[in-house]
Amino acid sequence: MKMKRELGLFDAVMLGLSGAIGFEIFVLLDHAYFNLAKSGIVLALLLGGLINTLIMLSYSELCAAIPEIGGEYTYIKVAYGGFVAFISGCLRWLASVAGAALAALAFAKQLLYLFSKVAPAVEVFVSAQMPLIAIIVIVILVALDVIGVKKIGTIIVISFLAIFAFFLVSGFWHGLTPIEVLPKPLHEGLLGVFSATAYMFPMFFGMRAIVAGASQIKNPDKNVPKGILLSALLVIPLYFSIAYVTVGVISHEDVGSPLLNFAAEKIMGLPGGVLFAIAGMVASISALGTSIAVQSSIARGMSRDGYLPKILLSVHKRFGTPYVAIIAGSLLIVFLSVIGPIEFLAYAGSFGSILVFALINLSLLKLREKRPYLKRPFKTPLYPLTPVAGFVMSMVLLVFPIFLGDVNAVSGLMSGLGLVALALITYHLRMIGRHRLRVAVGGISLSIGVFAGLWAYLFDTEFVPLIIPSIPLYVLILVCIVSILAGILNISARTPKIF
Amino acid sequence: MRTRRILAVIVGIAQGAIGVFAVVFAYILFFDFPLQLFILIVFGFFSIISGLFLLTERPSP
Which one in A92, A171, A293, A379 has a CA-CA gap of 20 to 30 Å to A427? Predict the structure, then answer.
């Protein structure tokens, strides 16, 4: 059934803002401020907003030209085919899973802050049980997603805008310490600012929600690009001023964590800090529910296209929800929320999405060349400078935190690249097919068996190079016999009839 | 075909077990020797996959 187009430009902008303004601002400022850029986070957010606008220009053109469901997965598929689209799907999935784990930990962190203020007696207990709290929140949200409870995004974003407006007005009224937006010398130099931008970039990601909701927007040729660009531009002064006020009211001596709660407490007293803690928890819960649903939808999309097992498409008989995909991804979310520090999860999510953004810019360049006559209701200005700049800046954001030597950034990038490697193997194994793969594994098994036999013979004749570890003869003979038998059985398996 | 099926199950279980033992022993014995660790883990995984293929073999119609 086709969805009705009921949303106007205002709703489109709200959709983009509700996607962007979320729990990230409550949790990501800390590491960026304390370890990467200090007051340079103000400049870092400004830079992030500008880079995001460059990328959103590419999104706008592609979304208006290819108004089909699937978002970036579809654009990349049209430009580069299934293989690259599959990689992008895996990266988006990684970003959603890491984002969900981050949201669960952000909830636990805000809860800890709340207890430290209203019930200090249980603070130590809550502090020790943060992973458990994150797991409980994930399990509850998974249950809600399986049952099929809808979220209330627009109400949350309006509440946030009101809270932030109150924070900004109070902050300016309170009187700010004159801060240097461009301190000289910059803490860790421009490297620190770029690293902070990369780390805080998830604060902008959610804007893509417009692309996902494009099928419900009236007059999409005009409203979708306008909505994307307006929300991208509106977020810049909002984040810039929040960071400016936050950095302006705190002093380096008495600064506490979470940074935003601390600033709110300094401006509005204890009620301010508590209000921000509650807002942070609500945002985290909302984002966690959305991320769980998004990761399951990406996994189902790839399963539908034959890249992942079909079992992920299973729908619950009673609730009509994709419970297998939800639960499968949620197990990884639980695992990540237990093992992963906030900084690692933020980088993993950020790098996953930044790589997709780089591919989006490349897709735009490719489609302009490959399909010059495609109807484009919106054209990116200053082509090809804009997508080229978007691509280059995405790469810069990937590389700078590594140069700064941030261990979490290296782990985050390695997780992303590891997933890409795994995706490559999965893709090729799917393309090879079960039977051919079995014959190949049989061949390897046979070779191992022959090698083990030769090794056993060398042991028997006591002609063994020292570099070969000593393994008992009977083990080698067992491995030799079993591997040769397994090889013969696998190679001689009958080819199943395809037609 | 019945003999083949029985043989496939026995060899599949043996090879899968060898693969699991190879991975476990690789970690225990060669944790500080990356090359040996890598070779044994690759061998272990191939053995496990090969064993699984034999265990999940369906009788041809």
Answer: A293
Q: Where are the domains of chain A?
A: 9-432, 434-491
Distance separating alpha carbons of residues A222 and A197, to the nearest angstrom: 30
Q: What are phi and psi of A253, to 5 degrees?
A: -80, -45
Q: Which residue of A has its CA nearest to B22?
A: A479
Instruction: Indicate the CATH number for domain A9-432.
Output: 1.20.1740.10
List, for residues A14-55, the tens digit of each pLDDT value: 877 777 777 888 888 888 888 888 788 888 889 999 998 888
Say how far apart CA A240 and CA A40 lie, in whole Å.
Answer: 11
- DSSP letters, A103-142, are HHHHHHHHHHHHHHHH-GGGHHHHHHTHHHHHHHHHHHHH
Q: Is the dihedral of CA A234, A239, A240, A245 positive or negative?
A: positive
Q: Residue A71, SS3?
A: coil
CB-based contact A356:A391 (threshold 8 Å): no
Phi-psi category of A382—alpha, beta or left, where left has phi over 0 and alpha has psi -120 to 50?
left
Q: Which residues, 6 or more positions from B11, have their beta carbon under 8 angstroms from its beta carbon? A: A482, A485, A486, A489, B51, B54
Using CB atoms, pick whichever of B4, B15, B43 lies closest to residue A482.
B15
CA A287/CA A285 separation, integer angstroms: 6
Do A469 and B11 lie within an 8 Å CB cutoff? Answer: no
Contact B53 A438 (CB under 8 A): yes
List CB contacts (< 8 A) between B60 and chain A.
494, 496
